[in-house]
Every structure is written in C-alpha cells, then in structure tokens.
Amino acid sequence: MSANTKANRFQTFEERANPELVGPRVEALRKKMKTKKVDAFLVPRADAHRGENVPAGDERLSYISSFTGSAGTAIVAQDKAALVVDGRYTLQAPTQTDTDVFEIVDLSPTATGDWLIANLKKGQKVGYDGWLHTPKEVETLDRKLAAKGIKLVEVSNLVDAIWKDRPAPPTNDIYTLEVAQTGKSASDKLAELQKQMLEKGADYLVLTLPESTNWLLNIRGSDIANTPVSLGFAIVPQSGASRFFVQPEKINPVIQAELSDVTVLEPIEELEEALKSMYTDSVWFDDATAPIKLVNLAKSVGATIITDKDPVVIAKARKNAAEVEGMKAAQTSDALAMARFLSWLDDEAPKGKLTEIEIVEKLEDCRRQSNELLDISFETISGSGPNGAIVHYRVSENTSRTLNPGELMLVDSGGQYRNGTTDITRTMATGDTTPDQRKHFTLVLKGMIALSRVHFHKGATGAHLDVLARQFLWNEGLNYAHGTGHGVGALLGVHEGPCGISGVNHNVLEEGNILSNEPGFYLEGEYGIRIENLIMVVPSEKNEKFLKFDTLTYTPIDLRLVEKDLLTPEEIEWLNDYHQKCYELIADRLEDDKQEWLKQATRAI
User: Fold this and answer.
1) What does the DSSP 8-state code read for residue 318?
2) Cis upstream peptide for 498 (omega within 30°)
3) Residue 347 contacts by C-beta under 8 Å, 6 or more apart in sequence?
4) pLDDT given for residue 7 in this prediction
5) What is the maximum span of the chain, computed from C-alpha positions, in angstroms?
6) Can you give the residue ranges of the Peptidase M24 C-terminal domain (predicted)?
7) What residue ranges in 45-158 does DSSP mark as E strands?
C-alpha cells in the first residue's frame, strides 16, 4: 500500500465546521419540532451502536451544531439552544459552532437535565430518538424532568427529517480473522457466552456494540473510519447459532458460509420483527448501551427484560496470549515508524517551514512503510505551539499553522495494523526550551512513570490509580481535564471499555487489560504537553494478590525537555531502562542514519 498521493491518505484536512450553517439548520429543526409538538429536541453524538466514530449519515450533532468532536449533545429548544461538551472540547466547541445560537455548557452527570429545567416550563415536552438513547439515560433524565412537570417523549429523528442529502448507511464487506490471530474460535466464544446466558436465565442476549459483535464472531469490517468493524445487531440464543442483522448488501454466499457455524446473516430490516417474536422469552440487554427503542420493542410484546452489562465487553478486554502477541507486534511496527518520524522531525523542525498538515502526512507515510497498516486508529492530533493546548485538536486546511522553532510540538496518533492497534503521544522540543516548558514536561513525565511502576492489589480500579499520574501536577496547583487512560482494543476501537484510568472509572482492572497511560498539561494560548504509552495489566512478582503494568510502547521520550533535577533516582533509572529497551527493540531494523539518531535519543541521563 503506497502512496504518497493525498487521495489515498487515511486522514483528510478539509474544514468540516461551518458555523454559518448552524442558524438556518436550527431554525429548520425548530419548525419540525412544532409539527411534532415538542418544545425541545436532543441531538447526541452517539449513533445506535454507541460508537466513538460514526458513519457519515449519523453525524447529526455535527450537522446541527457544526461541532466535530467525538462526544457531546445538542439541546435545541424553541428560543434557546445548548451544546454540552466535556473538558476535552471546551476550547474547540466555541470556535466551531455559532455561539449566538448555542450556549456552550460543561458536561456533568446532570448538565442536560439542569439546562432543560432552567429553560423549559412545566407541561412542555422534550423529544428524543429512541435509537440514540439508552434506557439508563432516558430513565435518569425522565425522572429528573418529571419532578418539574416536563415530559420526555420519543419521536422520529427530527434532524434526519431536515437533512436532505443525508448519506446512506455503509455497506462494506465483512471479513473473518484466523484463530491464530484471535486466540479463540468464534464457536468457543459463543459457547462460553451461552453458558453465561444459561446462568443468568436469559433466553436471548441482544448485542448492539460493534466491537462486541465483531469480537464474538471473529469478524472485522470498514464501515466507519479508523475502527475496523462491520456494523450490525446480534441476537444470541441460549443455544445454537446467533443471528446478525446487517445491511442486506453485506450478505453474500461466501461470508454466510464462513460464518455458518456461529451466525446467520439477516437484513437489518428484520431486526424489529425478530424482537417482537420474543413474547414468551427473557431477553438480556445492556441498559447502558442498547437503544431504548429495541428494549421497548421487546417489552411491548411481553418479554421479560434482563438488564446487565454486555458480557462480551469484559471478556474482550481480557486479551488472550494471541491477542497480546499481535498487539506487541503492532507496537514494534509503530516504534519503527515513530523513530523514522521523530528523526525526520528533528531535522526539519528547526528550519521553521513545517506545517501541522505536513507533519501528519509524514507520520502516515512512516507508518505505511511497514506494509501492515490498515488504517490510522484515530485522526492524528498535530498541535504546534498554542494548538497543542487544544486537547482533541483536529488540524484542517483552515487551522494548520507553521511550526516555529522553539515551540512545543504535540503529536497524538495511532495505527490499525493487521495484528493490532496502537496509540501514542509524544511532545517534542523544536529548539531552545524554557524553564517552564521543562518543568511542566517533567511533572507530566513523573506522573506517567509513577503509573508505569505501580504494583496494585487485585480488585483495584482506575479510580484508585488516577491520582498517581496527577500528584506532581496537583502539588503545583495544576491539573488536566481528561482521563489518564482508556482501554485499547486488539484490532478494534482505540478507545475500549470497560476499564480505564480516571477518577470516575470504577471497573476492576484485570490481567490482560491494555490501557493508555497519558497524563498531560495544557497552557491555553501557549502549548500542550502529553506523554502516552500503552500499558498492560500483568501479575506482580511481589505478591500473588497483586498486579502491575508492563509497558508495551517503546518510543523515545524527548530528553531535551526533561529537567533531571526534578527526577528521583528511581525515576531516572526507569527512564534509562526504558530508553535502553527502545534502542534494543528496533535499532538493528533502522537505517544507519536513523540508528545514530536513536542512539542519541535514548542516551542515559
């Protein structure tokens, strides 16, 4: 797969936000709201599969608000509107939407309900699309609004009604993975799942998350950018083959035969009738991820509803030996790409001519050299100087700036390789560094090292460990407004549940979990700093009741930004050992000039 041509690139740079379209679209939506007799309408970023990345035809939040972030909710009332976003997007959102139309609201567990109560009157109605909200979301919001006399009502999607050129659903082919890569056959996975269903007393399990269906059936696809999944809904019976409901164009004799032991492919149009046939059965849904539309369909015919976590999510997060081997191979491919990229950046950055787009393109070219790259795992964050302070910055033709020598350069990126998924952030010096840059970088590094080195008792969660990465910043009165780490899939979503490292993640960390370790610091208008490695939960040699993290990512950390006097001897030892491993892993596979760069970049301090 070659290609230096822009047409073949995984990442494009067109400006997707156009605030000028916001006002007319919101007014069109308000007219539709009047015809449905609702006083407000909710427009979440999520699609029916709760994906971080969604097909073009499900980009409703972007369509109505012009905001392109991966999370958020628009609330449109007749005379006011709000855009609810989390800390990653508080800088981005106001620049992308029309702030004369949308008030920017910081996300909190009650933000949507609080805004509706503050801006609606008793007796008014809030409309929502049942495909895009879960039972848990709806019940929580309904309870809050009902206490103030405001009614929550399900309606057809009103954004779709005004979106004249809405793209059609994706129909890309399904493909299967070999057991050598997955580590377990789909038949064995299905049998284990059905045993759990028997214990739960569930006649059927409905799976709506694409990562769950794809992992269970050992399939992948290309329906959405950056996440190699095929979209569909699965109904799993307590025995026998499952049913996988997909766009009819995906169904062909070849893939049907390959999957015949574990599933029958059926047109998506038949899903609702399948649920209506379960009137004497007990049906298991995850009420935190399944569309309430499907749950209500089963309820409407008298099915007994069981609500509990999607059991595949937990099984999938515990990577088996084959998945771990693939993930390690992918990180090695990425380490080679990153070494080539960083050595190039060191040569070119001091010239003061590189643009943020050119940096993204060069990194993709370096990754493509492996001939194993299927896609990038998310759009590369290429933030020079002040743009680095925008946590989820997306460079476009309109925003791309030239990297000036002396500025910090933050690059957060990853690849979907044939054997696994990567995610790495490095922040680089491009000239002389300042004391503040070095101090802030070293405080972030100390937090990353603390998390890398910790041994923790079985049963601990990410919420227990999050403070380890923040403590050095906190001691200086500093912080960052994002989680410290997220789960990572094996040739699946780069952001994977249920485990994570943040103050609000209470899922138990288990052997085989792979997570990111990415503390940061952001000085608005000046620079951003983030250092990210992937880490894996493994047994601790200190105590059989304890676990620890093994580092999977091996790419040099910029020593020009390290203030050695702020590091303890143990931290220095960790950093030197880490860099020695970086060198040993890839030195003999690099070109001579890159080997020399790597030797200098991984020198002991």
Assistant:
1) S
2) yes
3) none
4) 55
5) 73
6) 545-605
7) 73-77, 81-85, 103-106, 125-128, 151-154
Topology (CATH) of 321-596: Creatine Amidinohydrolase (3.90.230)
Query: Looking at residue 8, what is its pLDDT?
Result: 84
pLDDT at 155: 97
CA atoms of 535 and 451, how far apart (whole Å): 9
Token digits of residue 359: 């940096």
Pairing relation of β-strands 81-85 and 103-106? parallel
CA distances to 17, 31, 80, 97 from 27, rounded to whole Å, are 18, 6, 11, 15
Alpha-carbon 361 to chain mean position: 22
Class of the CATH-defined domain 175-317: alpha beta
Say which residue the tokens 């925008």 belong to: 390
SS3 328: helix
Q: Tell me the pairing of strands 533-539 and 520-523.
A: unpaired
pLDDT over threshold 90, residue 112 = yes
C-alpha pair distances (Å), 279 with each of 204, 282, 305: 12, 8, 10
Structure letter (DSSP) for residue 17: -
pTM value? 0.94
> What is the distance between the alpha carbons of residues 461 and 456, in angstroms, rounded to a whole number?
9
Grouping H, G, I as helix, E, B as strand and the rest as coil, residue 435 is helix
| pLDDT tens sequence across 423-450 | 999 999 999 999 999 999 999 999 999 9
CA nearest 171: which of 290, 55, 63, 12? 55
Which architecture characterizes domain 9-162 according to CATH?
A: 3-Layer(aba) Sandwich (3.40)
DSSP string of 117-134?
Answer: HHH--TT-EEEE-TTSS-
Cα–Cα distance, 38 to 292 (Å, whole number)? 19
Question: 175-317 and 321-596 share one CATH topology?
Answer: no
**What is the average pLDDT score of the chain?**
96
- At 93, list the tokens: 């959102």
What distance lies between CA 155 and its chain's CA centroid?
Answer: 29
CA distance 597 to 577: 18
Alpha helices, H only, 147-260: 158-162, 179-182, 186-200, 210-217, 253-258
Q: Is 365 helix (H, G, I), strand (E, B) or coil?
A: helix
Q: How far is CA 76 from the centre of its chain?
A: 26
Helix and strand element counts for the chain (H, E): 19, 28
> For 331-387, what is each residue's pLDDT tens digit?
999 999 999 999 999 999 999 999 999 999 999 999 999 999 999 999 999 999 999
| In the chain, where the domains are located | 9-162, 175-317, 321-596
User: What would the DSSP string read from start to end of 281-307?
Assistant: SEEEE-TTTS-HHHHHHHHHTTPEEEE
